[in-house]
Amino acid sequence: MTASKKDEGSFSPEALKEKYRLEREKRLRADGNAQYRDFSGIYEDFDKDPYVEPGFTRPALTEKIDVLIVGGGFGGMLTAVRLRQAGVESFRIVDKAGDFGGTWYWNRYPGAACDVESYIYMPLLEETGYMPTEKYAKAPEIFAHCQRIGRQFDLYKAALFQTQVEQLDWDEAARRWNITTHRGDRLAARFVVIAGGVMHKAKLPGIPGIETFKGHSFHTSRWDYAYTGGGPKGGMSRLADKRVGIIGTGATAVQAIPHLGASARQLYVFQRTPSGVGVRNNRPTDEAWVKTLGPGWQEERIRNFTALVSGREQDVDLVGDGWTYIFDDVASRLAKTPEEAAELRQLADFRKMEEIRARVAAIVKDPVTAEALKPYYNQMCKRPCFHDEYLETFNRPNVQLVDTDGKGVERITPTSVVVKGQEYEVDCLVYASGFEVASEYTRRLGFDIRGRGGKALRDSWANGPATLHGMHSRGYPNLLMFSPTQSGWAINFVHILGEQARHAAYIIERCLKRGVEAIEPSEQAQEQWWAEIVSRLHKGISFGGVDCTPGYLNNEGVRPPPSAIRYASFGGDTLAFIDVLRRWRNTDELSGLELTRGGEASNP
Ligand code: NDP
């Protein structure tokens, strides 16, 4: 798909293996995640919401509700929709943003778009009657869809925006969570669903001198259009006389750089590790195809994609894009032993990464720049990117790749970015430096959860989490958490969120209907679930890996402490995890949960 047949077989696996090892070693650093810093201190302004009018106030609320949902992104919205469909009306959705959308509220950088097909990524298309305009919809369209869901399912009346949860305390006598917010609200909720997202806490590189920079700077998740001009479609006219630097070349930067290149007088792209960038081939939605779709088409398409990218054989590839091409590896599926399968998989990976590298050489005219843009690692070591204008941008005379040879930016001065001793003067610095992923769950949440006996979740999980289905944890009754920890993980992440939302809504509706006031997983259920996770460790296809080039997917290449293993996800096959949840619901027994009705605990 991305390169011609003649490239096949023209590489030496041994030479590539050695090259990958050397490139990895250049990038390993002892400080791992500690190399990054958050927005606290002098960077607090970075975290200001640029999309709301300042000065919003409202009276504090005191309310008793059935459900509090933390997070108004897809996870929270889908939970609210499923609750409403199940007849549960007493809920609130709290989000620090000024509207629904989660990641699509915050990430409005130029060029932002979904990187899996919009027909499977944007949820509730059949229910809302909406069809995306393109195969890969742009951020404003996805954000508008979030608002559409909010309006159609009447979620706005339940929303508390620009509101941050400060603390959750379990009240054993009332069997409710007491929630306080920074707006002085006091909510008492029977259940709390935490759908706070995975990548919502932005990070900055801890580059020496970063705090001395006197020019303008911001993080991609808080794009400053007041400074750049233009909007998510580009056209940043105020950059026409500016020298702009962007630090980072991950999935965000790949989408933003073509627009910066088109708008800035001079663009410096500071690169530590190149992304692998395959063909995007975006196109408008085909009306004739839309007319062929029957009821249930979206669910079928979502499952077909997830099956293919989980390595399952399917009769048909409905999406047929760069993602399914990566996983199109019939040879290893036919292998007779796991060793043979692993070897064939590695060969297929080498071949496909050779295609990615050949694409760079074919597009980028300057051979030195082209060589620096070639990624040397296995495909799943970093999130694969797909873009049809990114590489071309480096042919522009006003765009310069400043490759740091794996070392990162050396220093920042009041006026410049320094790489290999050379100063690059910039007026504006854009940090495309990503989000905290590997930090502690409770740190990323940004608030404390105190369960039975006032015990903080961070203390209970000091030696690693213990859960049932990654959702419930003993000592924290009626708390339902969405995260990849001991839970499912999917390339099309909204697929998993949709299933977690269904699951949470089912449990809550059952409990409310049956007069169950508290649920909590038994020790035994947590142990059994952990045994299930262990039996699947390192199975199937996964992102990252200890031998990968460093990044957020492998704890920056630093071997984590043994307790970190307990943050593992359900290995390999996303659909298998979804089937576990579905089977569990089908028995209709809430098995593994201890139920409390009117003060009486029982094992169902
Ligand atoms: P990433 O963490 O992927 O990228 C951060 C970038 O900053 C990397 O290129 C990193 O280099 C670089 N960097 C960090 N420190 C330094 C330094 N000291 N000097 C120079 N460079 C440095 O963040 P993104 O925001 O790009 O993407 C995060 C995730 O968000 C994606 O993986 C994807 O899952 C999601 N996303 C999804 C999109 C979608 O379309 N749905 C679009 C965009 C993002 P290095 O690689 O060497 O660490």
From TrEMBL:
Signal peptide start and end residues: none
Gene3D superfamilies with a match to the protein in the record: FAD/NAD(P)-binding domain
Enzyme class name: oxidoreductase
Residues that span the membrane, as ranges: none
Cofactor(s) of this protein: FAD
EC number from the UniProt entry: 1.14.13.-
The keyword Oxidoreductase belongs to this UniProt entry's keyword annotation: yes
Keyword Oxidoreductase: yes
Domain of life the protein comes from: Bacteria
GO MF entries: oxidoreductase activity
Keywords, alphabetical: FAD, Flavoprotein, Monooxygenase, NADP, Oxidoreductase
Similarity annotation: Belongs to the FAD-binding monooxygenase family.
The name this protein goes by in its record: NAD(P)/FAD-dependent oxidoreductase
Lineage: Bacteria, Pseudomonadati, Myxococcota, Myxococcia, Myxococcales
